[in-house]
């Protein structure tokens, strides 16, 4: 039974230099955070009310989370604007992954309600988007070396950021900043 595919259970764990200065909810801190630290924190794209964050411990290359700014663990709390914004950013994320990494398929799922859902950040809902390749397996046991994982995520970050930057409506305001969609 240890082969069950359950990337949603992977904890988003503190990464040295990434969120060591954050008190409270990391997703809220990153939502409002210093844009010049986006690259350092692996925030790859931002819309008006959501953002895309690389997973620190990817299930597969390009594993990201699409996170609404609203701090809630209940999907029903999101208003129409937040729902649409989050959904559109997910569409852009699939496009960026297609162009940047070209996987064969995706698994995408919502983590709700913190610990009760096996989620990572208490009470701040987020969608995991996990690219899949034919015959893939959990990437983590394959590359368990931390430095290799960091390099792999950095590489995925660059490819995705470039792909987001080429989309209609993309704004790039700095080398270390996430791509912004403000429409
Ligand atoms: Zn939060």
UniProtKB/TrEMBL annotation:
Location of the HIT domain: 26-139
Motif Histidine triad motif: positions: 124-128
Highest rank taxon of the organism: Archaea
Keyword check for Nucleotide-binding: yes
Gene3D superfamilies attached to this UniProt entry: HIT-like
Organism: Halosimplex aquaticum
Pfam families (UniProt xref): HIT
Name of the protein: HIT family protein
InterPro entries the UniProt entry points to: AP-4-A_phosphorylase, FHIT, HIT-like, HIT-like_sf
Keyword tags: Nucleotide-binding
Keyword Lipid metabolism applies: no
SUPFAM superfamilies: HIT-like
Molecular function in Gene Ontology: nucleotide binding
